[in-house]
Amino acid sequence: MSTPSGASRPDDTAGQGPTDPDAIKADIEATREQLASTVDELSHRLDVPARAKEGAARARDTAVETYRESPPAVAGAGAALVGLVGLLLWRRRRTRRRAAAALRSGAALAEARAEARRARQEAAREAARARRAVARNARTTKRTSRRRARRVRS
């Protein structure tokens, strides 16, 4: 909020900043340059593709320089890196194959369990039928025995 005197705050006084117009212009120009350098720095930090290209170029330069200094060491490191990547890919593939086999065997196991459960249920039904048949035969035998006993008595 501005005051009638033109100051942005009531506690601003004219004696704090430079009063000479050339000094004020120089101060403004210095502030602009500072602001421009800050904006440039921020835009450089936020430009990720350019930073990635710079990092790749630095890595490439370092690799070329290292190769020029000691070619066998770089070749050995490259071979070790290729071997490591190959080993990691092989282990990943093996792990995935084992997991897939476990899933398949898990499905087969579940199917075998279901089949065993069905077989147990069928066996229980057969046992119940057999018990009923034995009980029926026992009753029939008892009746037959009584009839024979009556015949013998008569």
Number of helical segments with 4 or more residues: 3
Fraction in beta strands: under 5%
Residue-averaged pLDDT, rounded? 83
Low-pLDDT ranges: 9-14
Using only C-alpha atoms, the radius of gyration works out to 48 Å
The proportion of residues forming helix, as a percent range, comes to over 70%
Summarize the structure.
This is LPXTG-motif cell wall-anchored protein. By secondary structure, the protein is an all-alpha fold.
List key phrases describing it.
154 residues, mainly alpha, 3 helices, single chain
Would you kindly provide a written description of the structure presented here, covering whatever features stand out?
This is LPXTG-motif cell wall-anchored protein. Residues 119-129 have a biased composition (Basic and acidic residues). InterPro entries: DUF3618. This protein has 154 residues and is mainly alpha-helical. It has a domain at 22-69. It has three helices and no strands. The chain is elongated and about 150 Å long. The termini are far apart. The model is unreliable at 9-14 (pLDDT under 50).
